[in-house]
């Protein structure tokens, strides 16, 4: 069995930059969601408090009106994940990126100008395509032999991690950078409002009186390496990816089945691949968006899989907002930090728990953690579960 080692991680969200900073913020119960104005509207969202000019400077690239915010957020997080690891042709590497927004923040500028009868610059479409954002990140990082883009809604980055783990375990690659990135844009904000699941107040995942989600933006990546790659890079194992699975219940275009059938099957299959019993999971970083459908469906699925042995669980989206395609990678970084620091995070903004189970954490707790499960569930019932274990 080839080990899939996590040797690097990087993250940027409304909470700030760096994995260690995020852990401290989450442990302290700090939220990055704020009330801000966008196009004459006020809303709660997890907005990264850097302009594109500032992001470009932090990334070490020249600012351009034609570089998407999605790509800049991704590049910043990816640089942290790689740290001092050199990517070149001597040791072929792969890059798998999850995104759903792509360069819509730029193409929206074109349509806005058109709608006002103003000159519109067609060059703004240069990064509209999802793959263009992946290519931008890759070209600014190093030499990748294989590059791929995954777009499966909110499970995109989790599926990128799963594919990267499979590439390493199959022996096709020894080193894979995996994760995802998405920026806030008008299209997604208005889209979720049209579904009537955007909370006008701070979101309350797993609360009995939850009203919906708050969107966020951000990016996160993990550097995955085989044992052979670690010997060459000299990197330290931070955690191992031991389980992964994707299932789809195809129940509805924008929701999962009430019983969470796809989620159940994903969690069960991930446990089987990791060769773990349900009772061996110490903490679940739940998808927990704050919508009526997701939280009730996910609760039903977890109770079906774990029964009376439901481990401590919580949602961290009350701190970051729902970062869509990036969420699976962001929460994967949180899961790795949970293992490293021995801490299970508390659920944010909860006043009346939607379950009587004491497993739903209201505050962060310090404990011995050997295995963490991280769930990411997307539109169409695309359900992915990952398991991270101590080295």
UniProtKB/TrEMBL annotation:
Protein name as it appears in the record: 3-oxoacyl-[acyl-carrier-protein] synthase-1
Keyword terms, alphabetized: Transferase
Molecular-function annotations in GO: 3-oxoacyl-[acyl-carrier-protein] synthase activity
Record-level GO BP terms: fatty acid biosynthetic process
Protein family: Belongs to the thiolase-like superfamily. Beta-ketoacyl-ACP synthases family.
PANTHER family: 3-OXOACYL-[ACYL-CARRIER-PROTEIN] SYNTHASE, MITOCHONDRIAL, POLYKETIDE SYNTHASE-RELATED
One Pfam family, short name: ketoacyl-synt
GO CC terms, sorted: cytosol
Domain Ketosynthase family 3 (KS3) per the UniProt entry, residue ranges: 1-390
């Amino acid at each position: 069995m080839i080990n899939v080692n996590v040797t690097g991680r990087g993250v940027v969200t409304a909470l700030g930059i760096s994995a260690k900073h995020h852990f401290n913020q989450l442990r302290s119960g700090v939220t990055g969601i704020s009330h801000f104005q966008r196009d004459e509207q006020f809303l709660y969202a997890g907005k990264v408090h850097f302009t594109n000019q500032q992001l470009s400077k932090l990334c070490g690239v020249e600012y351009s009106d034609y570089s998407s915010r999605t790509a800049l957020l991704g590049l910043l997080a990816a640089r942290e994940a790689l740290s001092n690891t050199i990517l070149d042709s001597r040791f072929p590497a792969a890059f798998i990126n999850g995104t759903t927004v792509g360069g819509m923040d730029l193409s929206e500028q074109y349509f806005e100008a058109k709608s006002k009868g103003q000159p519109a610059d067609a060059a703004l479409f240069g990064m509209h395509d999802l793959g263009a954002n992946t290519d931008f990140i890759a070209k600014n990082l190093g030499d990748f032999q294989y590059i791929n883009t995954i777009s499966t809604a909110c499970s995109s980055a989790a599926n990128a991690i799963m594919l990267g783990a499979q590439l390493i375990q199959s022996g096709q690659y020894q080193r894979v950078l995996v994760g995802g990135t998405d920026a806030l844009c008008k299209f997604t904000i208005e889209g979720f409002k049209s579904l009537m699941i955007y909370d006008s107040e701070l979101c309350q995942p797993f609360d009995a009186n939850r009203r919906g989600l708050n969107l966020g933006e951000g990016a996160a990546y993990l550097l995955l390496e085989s044992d052979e790659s670690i010997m060459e890079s000299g990197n330290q194992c931070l955690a191992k990816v031991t389980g992964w699975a994707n299932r789809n219940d195809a129940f509805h275009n924008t929701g999962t089945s009430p019983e969470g059938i796809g989620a159940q099957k994903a969690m069960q299959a991930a446990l089987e691949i990791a060769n773990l019993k349900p009772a061996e999971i110490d903490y679940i970083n739940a998808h927990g968006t704050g919508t009526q459908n997701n939280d009730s469906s996910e609760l039903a699925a977890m109770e079906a899989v774990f029964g009376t042995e439901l481990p401590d669980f919580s949602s961290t989206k009350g701190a970051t907002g729902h970062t869509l395609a990036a969420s699976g990678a962001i929460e994967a970084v949180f899961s790795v930090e949970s293992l490293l620091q021995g801490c299970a995070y508390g659920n944010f903004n909860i006043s009346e728990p939607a379950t009587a189970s004491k497993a739903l954490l209201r505050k962060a707790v310090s404990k011995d953690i050997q295995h963490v499960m991280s769930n990411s569930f997307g539109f169409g019932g695309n359900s992915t579960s990952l398991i991270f274990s101590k080295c």
